[in-house]
């Protein structure tokens, strides 16, 4: 038996489909939207429609943009010979917040995952290889997540790019700032040891 009117149930179901949103949070969001003044609700709906209709991927780096080439790729002051490969657009934002990385990006929009039937043709690897072939790339930084899928994707891309004779690097991983050795797992500790540098 449904507790809510069918349109409310449908709204709750749609919110519940969002990642990280459970049934109770979906209900809270649905009722929040229903309590909005009509103009605010319409503005919210328009923002979703506009984002979906006017956002696409940059022809060069595959990041989300509303222009043919994203602002990062269009910025000639950036290092045009370094490409940082990331899993999704949120990773670009994380790097940009550091204000330290001055190169370009390539967004894969996923990682290889045979268990989920995601192969090389399902993410933007082909576009990366084409970029390296067409542009004067000197270094590719593989910045996929340090999980099983991210590591597999980084290794696969590394093998594909070897014939180009460019520098291929992987992000260093290790001890978190403020962490304690006894709380760190073996893989992280090994990475920290391998990635040590001279002081």
From TrEMBL:
An example Gene Ontology biological process: DNA recombination
InterPro entries from the UniProt entry: DNA_Rcmb_RecR, Rcmb_RecR, Rcmb_RecR_Znf, TOPRIM_dom, TOPRIM_RecR
GO molecular function list: DNA binding; zinc ion binding
Pfam families linked to this entry: RecR_C, RecR_HhH, RecR_ZnF, Toprim_4
Keyword Transcription listed: no
Zinc-finger ranges (C4-type): 58-73
Domain Toprim: start-end pairs: 81-176
Keywords: DNA damage, DNA recombination, DNA repair, Metal-binding, Zinc, Zinc-finger
Task of the protein: May play a role in DNA repair. It seems to be involved in an RecBC-independent recombinational process of DNA repair. It may act with RecF and RecO.
Protein family (similarity comment): Belongs to the RecR family.
Protein name: Recombination protein RecR
Species, as recorded: Agathobaculum faecis
